[in-house]
Amino acid sequence: MRHFTTTAIATLTVLSLVACENSYRTTEQGPSLPSPTVMAEAAYASPLKMQRDRLMMPPAFEQDTEQYEETDPNPVRLTALEPVSTFSSDVDTTSYAVMRRYIRQNNILPPSDAVRVEEFVNYFDYDYAEPASADQPFTPTVWVTSAPWRDGAKLMHIGVKGYDLAPDEEQAANIVLLLDVSSSMGAANKLPLVKKSVNLMLDQMNENDTISIVVYAGAAGVVLEPTPASRKTKIRRALENLSAGGSTAGGEGLALAYDLAEENFSEDKINRIVLATDGDFNVGTVDADSLEDYVARKRDKGIYLTVLGFGEGNYNDVIAQRLAQNGNGSAAYIDTLEEARKVLVREFRSTVFPIARDLKFQVEFNPATVAEYRLIGYETRLLNTEDFNNDAVDAGDIGAGHTVTALYEIVTVESDARLIDPLRYQTQNDTQGSVDEFAFVKLRYKLPESEKSDLLTVPVLVKDQYDTLQSAPRDARYAAAVAAYGQKLQRAGHTDYFDWDEIISLAQDSRGNDPYGQRAEFVQLVRAAKTASGDAKQK
Known about the structure:
Layout: H1 2-29, H2 36-44, H3 47-56, E1 77-78, E2 84-88, H4 94-106, E3 108-109, H5 117-121, E4 141-146, E5 154-161, E6 172-180, H6 191-202, E7 210-216, E8 220-228, H7 232-240, H8 250-263, E9 269-277, H9 288-299, E10 304-310, H10 317-326, E11 331-334, H11 337-346, H12 348-352, E12 354-365, E13 370-376, E14 396-399, E15 403-412, E16 437-446, E17 454-461, H13 474-490, H14 500-509, H15 518-530, E18 534-535
Parallel strand pairs: 3-18, 6-7, 6-9, 9-10, 10-11
Antiparallel strand pairs: 1-13, 2-12, 4-5, 5-15, 7-8, 12-14, 12-16, 13-15, 16-17
Helix pairs in contact: 1-3, 6-7, 6-11, 9-10, 13-14, 14-15
């Protein structure tokens, strides 16, 4: 009797939703066939199936089921043997927000593989030179100062800021929301937070933008056909009617979202899919290699992908990162509503509107002045030397007003801090300008409508270095504090003798303007890490 009552209630609930939806469509658009919402509900949310899913739902996920790509920190390179370093830009911030969730919610340090130091550094904005126009969207900024964690070593700081589009320069956006509504998304920090986050994003869109919604669980369905963003009531009602249940047919959902984007593709708009998921794809095409190949093929048609991660316990960072990198988009992790405001309100334009594609960095170090170097972070973004000049090789895309930062630890030839002994049987041949330069920095990028890259270069002059860390720009010191913290959590050994209190002091001293309290929050996270009860299990 109890089972019959539960099923009857579920049936009445679904019938009520169907009636409300049909009534709403009749009011707004006149009589019509059953809506895409109803068709999608029929695919994965029948009363009996909802009841079965609840009965078969697995127990609460444990923290160590999360998946992060196994990486090793970059090694120290001997300049005489490997003078050139090449990597793709990265503006993702997932790793920082994941770290914050581990420390705040669980009072433990994140797994070392979850730590990508470049994403810690790039979580914050820095005061770099402003580019003059969209035709040359970057002006490189380079600072060289003392490394705070090792006497005798230096820190080379490379930063660029993307051209910030004025409102009248922005293209309209055609956005397909791809929302995971499987049973694993039922927690408060998953689908309910997705809905709140999308509502924040909706407020940033204008009447020329369009939005549609595809959902997936045991099957995929369209719950909102392309709709002008000005029809906010209709869009919000479609969002509110979503509920979690079923397995996770992520591959099928991706295919349907791309089909919808292609059907409504516009050359005059930014065509982008925004995927919100915990990454737990467990039905259909689930391996990361197949999914990233599929996304890369669609990227070539001008449809880009942004990935927003949610939740804990079963979060699959491997799939989220690979999809974003191959989809010419960024990846972010939304652990709080405030993080949603950062990503989808304050950084909405940089998330949606690209001002350059395939940004690559290549640094040639001068063996006459630099004995060895180490790239801090970017382990998953490394490129071969020849990839730099190959326009067919994909790299990171940069949105309007976004900053990108990269840090190298370098040791000069006269320093006692060298970790690698000089070569006995090789002499160094001086090159042009070698005694005056630490390095030569090159950037390659494509303008949004171009398939041919442009080149920017800047020499790093010895005379322009700052004698002490304290004399360096405030943002150089703050980025150094963040990098020290990230390396400490990465457990690579490079910052073992630079303790938590020294990181806190450096960050406090260089905090500067902090309108949203993010830099103050960082200091609190360092304090919390200092007293955390332990480490998360490493998979």
